[in-house]
Amino acid sequence: MDKTIEWLLEKDNPSVRYFALKTLLDRSDDDGDVQSARRAIMRSEPLKAILAAQDPDGFWLKPGPGYAGKYRTTTWQILFLAELGADGHNRQVRRGCDYVLEHSQAVNGGFSAFSSKEKVVPSGAIHCLNGNLIWALIALGYGEDERLQRAVDWLAGASTGDDFSGWNSTVPGPGFKCGINGGQPCAWGAVKALRALANIPPQLQSPRVKKATQMAAEFLLGHDLAKADYPYTGNVSGEWFKFGFPLSYTSDVLEALQAVSEAGYARDPRLKKAIDLVLSKRDAEGRWLLKHSLNGKMWIDFESKGKPSKWVTLRALRVLKVAGVA
Questions:
Q1: Mind listing the pLDDT tens digit for each residue in 153-188?
Q2: For residues 119 and 170, is the Cβ–Cβ distance under 8 A?
Q3: Is pLDDT at 241 greater than 80 in this prediction?
Q4: What are the structural domains, with CATH classification, of the chain?
Q5: Is residue 51 within 8 Å of 269, Cβ to Cβ?
Q6: Model pTM?
Q7: Hey, which bits of 159-232 come out as E strands?
Q8: Beta bridge partner(s), residue 116
Q9: Distance in Å from the first CA to the final CA of the chain
Q10: CA distance 228 to 245
């Protein structure tokens, strides 16, 4: 374990170093190493590549909602910037966040993937997209922004069904139903929603948010995470078991474990089989391989697929730590 931690703390990946110091070693924000790693993140190659591709108006690749054009358009860059630990006070980062809030939000408050004649339309607002963007914008410092709070309220209402109507083949429905998943509940959407809802500052968590958080956690825990036997359009997706970084609209067992842990279920006995699955994928050196990637589709590749991954190893150790295993 000590050697694995030392590996994660190497300075070649300041993002992983920063999160390892914070979440695995419990260093405070005023710790010198933490501050140094935080500054180095903005000088790292992934951050420089992403920001270099940004249009002066704030979008990436093309104007509009920024979903289509995976994974070089605006929506995905905001998610990647947050995952990498970008500084939310950076001028370019803020320009991108503000662009999303101004061009991707439908009249109902939800973030949408679609637009019609320059108007964002509600039919493209889905659980996974909103979970990703809400989580990312909170991580980048927009938790108290009124526009984001509207999206939070939409996501909570769309999850619980409270004061929510309009379910059809393209609009998500209560209980994480999704037209893309044949109208069945979508576990990927539930994971993304739960991750966002569980990270909303406590003082901003409305009764509806708390209800949606509990619903999402119980839905995910109502199945065997080690099998991921959730309703699906075909067979259970193999993506659940291919740990990777970064993720997109898909999810994996690690992200599901992280989401339910952040919602307060880290020591729930129903997680044991999933935790055993995570442990079974650790190699002899205490590391995990990158099995799923978006390489070749982003502005820059983060790691090599099939090789030991600092990002996946960090994700795994964070989950195991809060579960009391590592």
A1: 999 999 998 866 555 555 677 889 888 888 888 999
A2: no
A3: yes
A4: 42-322 (1.50.10.10)
A5: no
A6: 0.96
A7: 177-178, 184-185
A8: 119
A9: 9
A10: 19
